[in-house]
């Protein structure tokens, strides 16, 4: 083979290799009925778009609120009857900030500070009219100590009351309305709901 023929063959080969390296292959087309197909090895029905854990949780504000509210009512049942004890952290006695810290740790996989004075700096401050399940509510009653609870919705909040122990109280109660201080949102409702589901499923 002549030198010219060899050179031409090498140039053609080089061009072909360069084209493989730089030209993107066309993206595979997803069939329009992709989510209706049966996955191999599964006995359940067709796959749904919500089965994809990578999808954004858009439009789930109401479901998220209900997940958080249900979790908080279950925590109320679990702690019901526990007396108030300043510095306490167990079923034998617990104070308001310890109750909040424990519920957020165990139910929402979220670590909050131990004291009310630290918790009041968590997340962002929100208006009372914007309260949603999972928000923290704070009060400044007479005396040295501040008080805190977790809003559960429908005007109720969960807290460790010095007179009644762990209980649900109404925000519009004359006492709590008088000493209401502020509300904070440590995490968005959708994040709280996701964490509650993950914590429950272990």
What does this structure look like?
This protein is of the alpha+beta class and 202 residues long. Helix content is 37%, strand content 18%. The chain has six helices and eight strands. The chain has helices at 3-22, 61-79, 96-108, 116-119, 174-179, 189-201; strands at residues 89-90, 93-94, 124-126, 136-139, 147-153, 156-161, 165-170, 180-185. The strands form two sheets. The protein has a six-stranded antiparallel beta sheet. Strands 1-2 form a two-stranded antiparallel ribbon. Helix 2 (61-79) packs across helix 6. It is globular. The N and C termini lie far apart (71 Å). The model is unreliable at 6-60 (pLDDT under 50).
Mean pLDDT across the residues is 79
Helices, by number, come to 6
Widest beta sheet: strand line-up: 3-8-4-5-6-7
Number of E strands? 8
* Secondary-structure content class: alpha+beta
User: What does the main sheet amount to?
Assistant: 6 strands, antiparallel
Shape: globular
The helicity comes to 25-40%
Low-confidence stretches: 6-60
**Strand/helix succession:** HHEEHHEEEEEHEH
What share of residues are in beta strands?
15-25%
Radius of gyration, in angstroms, nearest whole number: 28 Å
- N-to-C terminal Cα separation, in Å? 71 Å
